[in-house]
Amino acid sequence: MNIESIIQELESTKDRLNDAIAALQGSDSSGRKARKATNGKKRRLSAAARKRISQGMKRRWAARKKAGKNRL
Fold first, then answer.
1. How far is residue 10's CA from residue 16's CA, in Å, rounded to a whole number?
2. Distances from the Cα of 50 to the Cαs of 44, 47, 59, 63, in angstroms?
3. 19 in Cβ contact with 29 (< 8 Å)
4. For residues 26 and 34, is the Cβ–Cβ distance under 8 A?
5. Helix, strand or coil for residue 16?
6. Tens digits of per-residue pLDDT, 2-19?
7. What is the 3-state secondary structure (H, E, C) of 47-64?
8. CA dihedral 24, 25, 29, 32 (to 10 degrees)
9. For residues 58 and 46, what is the distance between their CA atoms, to the nearest angstrom?
10. Which residues are CB-neighbours of 53 under 8 A, at least 6 positions away?
11. Which ranges of the chain have pLDDT less than 50?
12. Is the CB of residue 41 less than 8 Å from the CB of residue 33?
């Protein structure tokens, strides 16, 4: 191996290590920040919202079940 190829290989290794360190520190080499942890607060649905979602899913399941019977 000549000196140039050794230097090139070391530079490549250095770049990979720098990327790994940046990712562990919360940002990558492109400058984007990693997502921060939430502050522990959960988003909660109201009872009315849960009921609307439940009714909508029941309608979708019923329509899918009905469509499946027609194919037989």
1. 10
2. 10, 5, 14, 20
3. yes
4. yes
5. helix
6. 888 888 888 888 888 888
7. HHHHHHHHHHHHHHHHHH
8. 110
9. 18
10. 45
11. 28
12. no
Tokens (6 digits) for 37? 């942890």
Question: Do 59 and 51 meet the contact criterion of CB atoms below 8 Å apart?
Answer: no
Residue holding tokens 């250095």? 14
- Owner of token pair 């290989």: 9
> What pLDDT sits at residue 28?
47
CB hemisphere CA count around 63 (13 angstroms): 6
Residue 65: what residue type? Answer: K
Structure tokens at 25: 């520190």
